[in-house]
Amino acid sequence: MSNEYRSRSSRHERRSSRWAKKDSDVVEAAANQAIKHLEEAEYQTAERTEEQKTTHEKTLRISLATYGLLTGLSMILALSFYALPLWKPVATASQSQNLYSGFAMQHGLVPYNDFYGTGGSIFYLINWFGNVGGSTWFLWIFEIIALLISGILTYRLVSQQTRNHTASLTVSVFTLVIVAGLSRGGDSPTLFALPFALWGALFLNQYFQDGSTDRGFIRFGMAAAFALVISPVMVIFFILSAIALLIHNIATGKIGHGFYQMLSTILGVLLVGYSVAYYSLEAQTVYTSIEQSVLIPFTHFGPTGDLLVTLAKALVLTLIFGIVAGFFQGLVQLKKGGPARIWYVMLLIGIVGVTTLVVFAQTFDSSNLLAVLPFTVVFAGLGLKDSDQILLKYLQNRLFAPILAILFVIFTPISYHFMNRTIASEEQHVAQYIQNNAKSSDRVYVVSDGKNINNLTKTISTLDNVPANYPVKFTQNYDLKVGKLTDKYVVLQAAQEVPASLKKVLDKDYKVSNYSGKYFQVYQKK
Description:
Elements: H1 2-60, H2 64-77, H3 93-106, H4 121-130, H5 137-162, H6 165-182, H7 189-210, H8 217-230, H9 235-251, H10 255-283, H11 286-299, H12 307-320, H13 323-333, H14 341-359, H15 373-382, H16 390-397, H17 401-419, H18 421-437, E1 444-447, H19 452-457, H20 472-482, E2 489-493, H21 500-509, E3 510-512, E4 520-525
Parallel strand pairs: 1-2
Antiparallel strand pairs: 2-4, 3-4
Helix pairs in contact: 1-5, 2-5, 2-6, 3-4, 4-5, 5-6, 5-7, 5-15, 6-15, 6-17, 7-8, 7-15, 8-10, 9-10, 9-14, 13-14, 13-15
């Protein structure tokens, strides 16, 4: 019995051993299969990461030769900017006022309070820094940097869209020409705000291409805030883009993503906004800066001059610099937009809206058309996909207008100087007369289109001329201040309307100087 028991026990142990071994084999096989799946998943993840990294590098890496070409072209185009001390004495009216602002701030005047401004607070800080040392060399360098960054960002944007170096370089080169042409002398708010808007276009283009991450929206908000406090008209691009993001997130059910993006964007805006608000509080320009750079331009419409002339100028500029062609390119790209279709729709609305806003403003400033560029540049690269003849295709898409744009950049300053050479010459004579008879501390009030005489004489003014499109309250405030005018010289340009309050002060406290000229009359304090 004992043997039989041992025999049964032995058979049971052998069966248990076989079962245990079988179970062990099953577990081991399952474990091996799981490890195999994990290894495959890790390999696929690493492969996707490496592929994304390779694509990213292929898209965004710019060779040193390309950097050198864009830098050299930026410096050549910047030779037409009036911040270059060689051309500063013959600056256009609007450019002379912007150049004067930095000099005036160096001598204690405050923008919006002591002189009127159309740009944001940071724009005038840039002019202030650019006038360090009494020269505008630094300002000219800042303008080159803004121009160069715009070209680099355009290159990267087109590279994302086409993965083609030739297409990217072609669009970026002609974009530099467009920027130089529309900025009309360089020292304009839209030039300095443009890199932030182009970065926003680059960021959103990448987002709609893969939509894989919500990172970067804090920087998106900061870019929008910087655009606002440099050139308020440029912020329209960010507003319409934010609306497109909102609609896109709702349509795709990404409510959580949209909420996170909104909070991140608001945080970015606040980071910049609080810093600028602190400066504005210190300078006591919080309300005046908002009123003059935002409220008046966005609420007062209808040109004060000849509407037909303004429309003719606007038509020529929109054709030459590709705004009209950019709009029709956008219409063609709508059907290929995919996830970015709603964004493209908003870009098309922006092209029409901003152009209309600029053209029908009470004072037409062609440099504000530069605010349309971030809308149109998104479509410039899309129209070059799968094309064998990049340059020819680009020129055809723009109706060969880029060639005219190059000629415009070259010959417009020359023609302007030629037509205004007699006035510019007399401005220098007036400046020489004042310098010979005044002290460096004396103030000079000039009633003319621009501030060239103040820039030439390196003098500031107690008063500033009220822009024609400003509300009546500004004129009333001027009448109160002009009665206390103490400037040693008052210079009147022929054909300029002289306020009645100023005429009374001139008759009472000033006398006509012995300066004799055709276009200017100089009054001296009694």
